[in-house]
C-alpha cells in the first residue's frame, strides 16, 4: 500500500502522520499520478491549523496538497491525450498532493526543462494570478498595483501583467525591491507610507490586485477611485471596504496551467526560489508560513 502524510487532527505540523493509505482508483476523466513533488501553500497551513474547518471540510483520509507534479501511473475511463509514463503537473481542488499517489482531473504536460519543484509550485499560484487578472479586466496601457508582488502569486501576476503591456507597481518589503524590479515592476513599500509613495509616481491606478491579504485595502480603494476594480485573495476585511474576495472556483482560470507552463519552460516566467523538503519527513519539519517562498515536498 502507498503512503501519504495524513492529517490526524488540527494543530501543529505533528498532526501530519506518514501513514499507509489505499491506492486511489482514477474515475472517469481522471488520471492517477505517482507524485514526485507537491506544492505547499498558505491554504494548506490554514487547513492544518483548523482555521477553515467550518468552510472547507477535509476528505477522509485527510491528505492535504492542492498541487503536485509526477508521472502518470493510470488512466480513468475516457481519458485521452496522455499515457502512463508521461510527466505532468496538476492542480488538485479536492486535495491529495501530500502522498505517493494522487488523482487529477485536469493537468498539463511538464516539459523536460521544468524541474519537479517548479512544476509542483506552479498550478495553484498560476490559477490565482491568471484568474484575478481576468476578473480585473486589465488591458495594455493600464496601471496595476500588486499588493504582495514578491509573493508566489504576485510574482506570476506581475510578469503576466508586464508582458501584457501594463505598468505595474509592486508593494513589497525592502529586501525584495531589486527582485520585483528585475520582473519589470516599480517597487513601493508596504505600510503607512504606501499611499504617499504611490502618489509620488501616479495620482491613481486602474486596478489593484491584493495577492497577500495583509492590509493596504483602504489605500488601494483610494488609489483606484473606488472598490470596483480592487480584488483580494485573502484579506478577511475585504467587505469593510466593498472589495471583492476572489475564490478558486472551477471557472476562474481552468486554462491557467496550460498558459503558464510553456512560459516557465522557455524562461519567460520566473517563480520564487523553492525549498525542498522530504515528503516522508513532513511531520518533523516546519513549513514556512510566509508567502515569500514556496515550499515543495519532494524526494520520497
From TrEMBL:
The keyword NADP applies. GO terms for molecular function: oxidoreductase activity. Pfam families: ADH_N. Residues 283-300 have a biased composition (Basic residues). Residues 280-300 are annotated as: Disordered. The keyword NADP applies. Gene3D superfamilies: Medium-chain alcohol dehydrogenases, catalytic domain, NAD(P)-binding Rossmann-like Domain. Keywords: NADP. Residues 11-287 form the Enoyl reductase (ER) domain. Transmembrane segments: none annotated. This is NADP-dependent oxidoreductase. It comes from Actinospica durhamensis.
Amino acid at each position: 500500500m502507498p503512503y501519504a502524510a495524513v492529517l490526524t487532527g488540527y494543530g501543529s505540523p505533528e498532526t501530519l502522520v506518514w501513514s499507509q493509505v489505499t491506492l486511489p482508483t482514477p474515475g472517469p476523466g481522471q488520471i492517477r499520478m505517482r507524485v514526485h513533488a507537491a506544492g505547499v501553500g498558505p491554504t494548506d497551513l490554514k487547513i492544518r491549523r483548523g482555521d477553515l474547518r467550518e468552510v472547507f471540510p477535509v476528505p477522509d483520509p485527510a491528505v492535504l496538497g492542492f498541487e503536485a507534479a509526477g508521472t502518470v501511473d493510470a488512466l480513468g475511463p475516457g481519458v485521452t491525450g496522455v499515457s502512463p509514463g508521461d510527466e505532468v503537473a496538476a492542480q488538485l481542488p479536492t486535495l491529495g498532493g501530500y502522498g505517493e499517489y494522487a488523482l487529477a482531473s485536469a493537468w498539463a504536460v511538464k516539459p523536460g526543462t521544468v524541474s519537479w519543484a517548479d512544476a509542483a509550485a506552479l498550478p495553484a499560484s498560476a490559477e490565482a494570478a491568471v484568474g484575478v487578472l481576468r476578473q480585473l479586466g486589465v488591458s495594455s496601457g493600464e496601471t496595476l498595483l500588486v499588493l504582495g508582488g514578491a509573493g508566489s502569486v504576485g510574482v506570476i501576476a506581475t510578469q503576466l501583467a508586464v508582458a501584457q503591456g501594463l505598468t505595474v507597481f509592486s508593494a513589497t518589503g525592502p529586501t525584495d525591491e531589486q527582485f520585483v524590479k528585475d520582473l519589470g515592476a516599480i517597487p513601493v513599500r508596504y505600510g503607512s507610507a504606501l499611499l504617499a509613495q504611490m502618489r509620488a509616481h501616479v495620482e491613481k491606478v486602474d486596478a489593484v490586485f491584493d495577492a497577500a491579504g495583509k492590509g493596504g485595502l483602504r489605500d488601494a480603494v483610494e488609489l483606484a477611485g473606488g472598490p470596483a476594480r480592487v480584488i483580494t485573495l485573502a484579506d478577511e476585511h475585504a467587505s469593510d471596504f466593498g472589495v471583492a474576495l476572489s475564490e478558486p472556483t472551477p471557472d476562474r482560470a481552468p486554462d491557467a496551467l496550460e498558459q503558464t507552463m510553456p512560459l516557465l519552460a522557455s524562461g519567460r516566467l520566473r517563480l520564487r526560489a523553492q525549498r525542498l523538503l522530504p515528503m516522508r519527513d513532513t511531520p518533523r519539519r516546519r513549513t514556512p508560513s510566509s508567502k515569500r517562498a514556496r515550499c515543495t515536498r519532494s524526494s520520497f
